[in-house]
Amino acid sequence: SFTLAIVGRPNVGKSTLFNRLVGRKLALVDDQPGVTRDLREGEGRIGPVRFTVIDTAGLEEVTDASLPGRMRALTERAVDSADVCLFLIDARVGVTPVDRTLAELLRKRAPRVILAANKAEGRAAEAGLIEAWELGLGEPLALSAEHGIGMDDLLRALEPIAAEFPDAAAIFEVDVGDEVDDNVDEEGGGAALPAGRPIQIAVVGRPNAGKSTLVNAILGEDRLLTGPEAGITRDAIAVTVDWMGTPFRIFDTAGMRKKAKVQAKLEKLSVSDGLRAVKFAEVVVVLLDVQVPFESQDLRIADLAEREGRAVVVAVNKWDLEEEKPQKLNELREAFGRLLPQLRGAPMVMVSALTGKGLDRLHTAIVKAYAVWNTRISTARLNRWLAAQTADHPPPAPAGRRIRLRYMTQVKTRPPTFVLFASIPDAVPEDYKRFLVNGLRRDFDMPGTPIRLYLRSGD
Ligand code: GDP
């Protein structure tokens, strides 16, 4: 799916629009007085189109003389993290000099811009809407984030963008049986990396596993979490970094926030913080402490990552402390298979965040898991495979009723999701489905990603 950044000067209504797109219950912490947040992020949706929304929320609270500089810096960061920018002006105020400056920045820097005049309810807004044309960003949409006006127009503006990022359409939620996407390259398929966009990762694990140390090691000299503007940047929800030639976006989690010494109040919210990071991430790095591996907290979050359909890489940290490495490795492998059977096939990498050892292998594992998560297998290959599987191992015949498996197709990537049409779908036992999923994982080389298989009736 794609990322939409809401940009504009303070008080044009960015947060209101953010809340409307994300839905209040999903909105990130926002009513903490005195906590300046920098970029916040949520999962947005209009009609069938889904996307990530970024909002330069921290700006609203900054009143001092440094505002222009911060506004530019924050807007640039938002623009650089986004596939499309939604630039808001206030229709009642009209175009201000600050709006012109931002418009110029967007024209130069943003790949796609949608211009919108907000607070456009009522006649007082007409003049502002007409003025907005002069920004040279095309036809302005008339919106009222507060009253929900203009959302249809916004949807129409987003649809062509959603079409460029096929996963943005929520076809799967509606009814998978009706929406079979057979538009795949017969020869190609397999894992492919969408070029250019950062891989979104979250590092999760129990306190003291070494999450902050690992993230700082990845950030290297580029320590965005502790810059001179610490008050604002430390509370960032995500940082973008080039790590060994690959762009990554790393989501902040509870442990890192603790290190950032934000008020105790925020700590209470931090339990759900790791969970939130999982929702935003594409690849979840479950960081274990080699001295206390596979704690219940680790197991819970790893399970959540699987259920949320994320790619998962398990990293075992503090490997530098381990004396009996080969023996420990065997123990860890055994524990992994026993305690996290749902993550079968996920890579496990030994690292030392402190010394930097093993980080190159972690990098490779993450990139590979991400590629696998994006795997696309053509329908022709799938059905040749299915025919071979069922010839060797036909489905059982419960109570004498023969189940015919007709046809299989991949409806979605991220994670790879398949639909199998069967004559009596409800009669296919769970262990036969598991047999097929394990076979898919093995024969199409898909370690480290959840695989979904749904049965539908097809005659
Ligand atoms: P977090 O709570 O998960 O963010 O953990 P921290 O990054 O704060 O690390 C907790 C402690 O473990 C700190 O004292 C780190 O110096 C230490 N630590 C982190 N990574 C390693 C490692 O790879 N090896 C060793 N020996 N210590 C580590």
TrEMBL record:
Limits of the EngA-type G domain: 2-166, 199-374
Keyword Metal-binding in record: no
Pfam family, one: MMR_HSR1
Domain of life assignment: Bacteria
PROSITE patterns on file: G_ENGA
Binding sites annotated in the UniProt record for GTP 2: 205-212, 252-256, 317-320
UniProt keyword terms in alphabetical order: GTP-binding, Nucleotide-binding, Repeat, Ribosome biogenesis
GO molecular function: GTP binding
Signal peptide residues on this chain, from the entry's feature table: none
Gene3D superfamilies in UniProt: 3.30.300.20, P-loop containing nucleotide triphosphate hydrolases
Binding site for GTP 1: 8-15, 55-59, 118-121
Gene Ontology BP annotations: ribosome biogenesis
Cited NCBIfam families: GTPase_EngA, small_GTP
Task of the protein: GTPase that plays an essential role in the late steps of ribosome biogenesis.
Family recorded in the similarity comment: Belongs to the TRAFAC class TrmE-Era-EngA-EngB-Septin-like GTPase superfamily. EngA (Der) GTPase family.
Quaternary structure, from the entry: Associates with the 50S ribosomal subunit.
Identification of the protein by name: GTPase Der
Organism: Amaricoccus macauensis
GN (gene name): der
